[in-house]
C-alpha cells in the first residue's frame, strides 16, 4: 500500500472538537501561581529588552491588563524600569508609547530564574485544565464511519481490504499492532488514520505541574490549523492563546526510541523540561515503528504501556523526583516486520485491541502503482518493461510490496539523468536499477 496521488484535507474543513478555552480575565483564571507569571515576565524582559505592553502580551499570550499588573509589581520591587520611546519607534503603535526593561537587580533576578528554569514562552496552563481538555478531545467521542475511512485512505492502493478492520480500530481507541513484511505500507497507512477525522484539537504551549513548567507544543510534531496572530492587546473575542489550535498530532519514532524519550526530561545544556512523546501525541496517534529494533528489550518497552493502555492515564517521573499523572488518550500503534509471536509476550498481545497483518499488493494494483509513480517522476515505461519487472519478481521470489516501485523508479531516474537518455525506463535500465537496489542474490536489499 502506498500513496499514488496527493489528497490533503483542507484545513478549513477541520472544526474544533472541544469548546474553545475562554480567555482568562484574572490571575485565578490562569490556574497557575502569580509568581510563575512574574518570573516569565522577568525572563522575557531579559530576552527582549525594552519591550512594550503589546509585545509582552503577545509573548506571554495572556490579557494585557494582567501583564500591566505584573509590571506594576516589578516596578514596586525596583526590578523593572520604564523607558520613554523615541519618536517614530515601533512602540509609538502601543499604549502609552512606553517600554519596559529590567533594572540591575532585575537582571540578577532573571539570571536566577533562567538557572532554575530556562523556559521562555506563553504562560503555562494548569495540569487540571490540560487533563480536562485532553479528555474533551477524545477521539472516541466522535465515531468514524466507512465513508470517513475510505476518504482517509483514498490514495492508498489496496486499502479496500483494510477498511473493515481499521474503522472499528480507530473508534475503539485501543492500541494497534501492524505487522507484515518490510515495505508493506504499515507505517504509511498508520499516518493516514487521522485523516478520517475532521476535527482539530487544542494543544497547550506548556503545562504547569508539580511546581514546574513542561513544554508540550513542538513545531516538529504539531501543525497549527491556522496562523494565530493576536490583533488586540485586550484579546477580545479570542480563545485563550496559551493553547494552539492544531491538526491532531501524528508522532512517529523508530529504532532510535529510548526510555528517556518517554519521560519528562531536559539536557544539560537546555534546562527546559520537555514533555515525553506520548504527552505530545495525546488526542492523536503515536506510532512506534520497527518494533523489536529499539536499544532496549522489547518486553521492557511493551511493559511501559500496560498501565496506560488499560486505564488511559500515564504516570510521569519528573527530573526532580516528583511524579505526576496525565491522561493517555491517543491511538498507540506498533509496527513491525518481525513475527509478533516471537518478539512479544502472549499476555501483552492479548492487551492489544487490534492486530492487523499487511501483505503484498495484487498484480493489477502493483502495475497501477508502477505506472503512477513513473508518471509522477516524469518517466514512462517502455513496452514490455512491466513484464520484465514481473519476471524479476518471479526469478528472485520477491513479493509485490509497495515500497519497491518508488525506490526502483527513483534509481532508474538517476541512471537515465546520468546517461542523458530519454525519460523512458527500459528493460536494461530496470535491470541495472534492480541490481543496485538488491544484493547479489536479488533479494537482500528490499522487502520479501
From TrEMBL:
Gene3D superfamilies, alphabetized: P-loop containing nucleotide triphosphate hydrolases
InterPro entries the record matches: AAA+_ATPase (IPR003593), P-loop_NTPase (IPR027417)
Sequence ranges assigned to domain AAA+ ATPase in this UniProt record: 172-362
Annotated stretches, region: Disordered: 1-26
TM regions (residue ranges): none
Protein name per UniProt: AAA+ ATPase domain-containing protein
Amino acid at each position: 500500500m502506498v500513496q499514488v496521488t496527493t489528497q490533503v484535507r483542507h484545513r478549513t474543513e477541520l472544526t474544533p472538537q472541544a469548546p474553545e478555552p475562554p480567555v482568562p480575565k484574572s490571575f485565578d483564571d490562569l490556574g497557575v501561581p502569580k509568581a510563575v507569571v512574574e518570573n516569565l515576565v522577568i525572563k522575557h524582559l531579559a530576552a527582549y529588552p525594552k519591550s512594550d505592553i503589546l509585545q509582552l502580551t503577545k509573548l506571554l499570550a495572556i490579557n494585557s491588563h494582567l501583564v500591566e499588573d505584573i509590571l506594576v509589581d516589578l516596578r514596586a520591587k525596583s526590578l523593572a524600569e520604564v523607558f520613554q520611546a523615541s519618536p517614530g519607534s515601533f512602540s509609538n503603535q502601543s499604549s502609552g508609547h512606553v517600554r519596559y526593561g529590567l533594572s540591575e537587580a532585575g537582571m540578577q533576578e532573571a539570571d536566577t530564574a533562567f538557572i532554575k528554569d530556562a523556559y521562555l514562552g506563553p504562560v503555562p496552563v494548569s495540569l487540571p485544565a490540560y487533563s480536562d481538555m485532553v479528555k474533551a478531545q477524545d477521539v472516541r467521542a466522535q465515531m468514524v464511519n466507512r465513508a470517513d475511512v475510505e476518504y482517509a485512505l483514498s490514495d492508498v492502493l489496496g486499502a479496500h481490504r483494510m477498511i473493515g478492520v481499521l474503522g472499528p480500530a480507530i473508534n475503539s481507541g485501543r492500541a494497534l499492532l501492524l505487522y507484515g513484511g518490510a515495505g508493506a505500507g504499515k507505517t504509511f497507512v498508520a499516518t493516514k488514520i487521522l485523516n478520517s477525522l475532521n476535527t482539530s484539537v487544542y494543544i497547550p504551549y506548556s503545562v504547569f505541574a508539580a511546581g514546574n513548567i513542561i513544554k508540550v507544543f513542538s513545531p516538529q510534531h504539531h501543525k497549527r490549523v491556522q496562523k494565530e496572530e493576536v490583533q488586540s492587546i485586550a484579546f477580545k473575542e479570542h480563545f485563550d492563546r496559551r493553547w494552539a489550535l492544531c491538526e491532531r498530532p501524528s508522532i512517529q519514532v523508530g529504532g532510535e526510541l529510548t526510555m528517556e524519550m518517554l519521560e519528562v526530561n531536559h539536557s544539560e545544556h537546555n534546562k527546559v523540561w520537555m514533555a515525553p512523546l506520548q504527552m505530545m501525541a495525546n488526542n492523536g496517534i503515536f506510532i512506534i515503528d520497527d518494533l523489536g529494533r529499539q536499544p532496549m528489550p522489547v518486553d521492557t518497552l511493551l511493559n511501559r504501556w500496560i498501565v496506560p493502555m488499560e486505564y488511559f492515564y500515564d504516570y510521569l517521573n519528573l527530573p526532580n523526583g516528583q511524579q505526576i499523572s496525565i491522561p493517555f488518550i491517543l491511538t498507540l500503534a506498533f509496527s513491525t516486520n518481525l513475527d509478533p509471536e516471537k518478539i512479544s509476550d502472549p499476555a501483552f498481545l492479548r492487551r492489544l485491541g487490534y492486530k492487523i497483518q499487511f501483505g503484498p499488493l495484487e498484480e493489477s494494483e502493483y502495475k497501477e502503482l508502477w505506472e503512477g509513480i513513473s508518471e509522477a517522476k516524469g518517466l514512462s515505461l517502455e513496452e514490455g518493461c512491466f513484464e520484465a519487472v514481473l519476471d524479476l519478481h518471479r526469478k528472485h521470489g520477491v513479493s509485490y510490496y509497495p515500497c519497491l516501485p518508488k525506490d526502483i523508479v527513483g534509481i532508474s531516474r538517476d541512471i537515465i539523468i546520468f546517461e542523458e537518455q530519454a525519460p523512458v525506463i527500459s528493460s536494461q535500465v530496470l535491470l541495472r536499477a534492480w541490481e543496485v537496489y538488491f544484493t547479489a542474490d536479488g533479494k537482500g536489499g528490499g522487502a520479501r
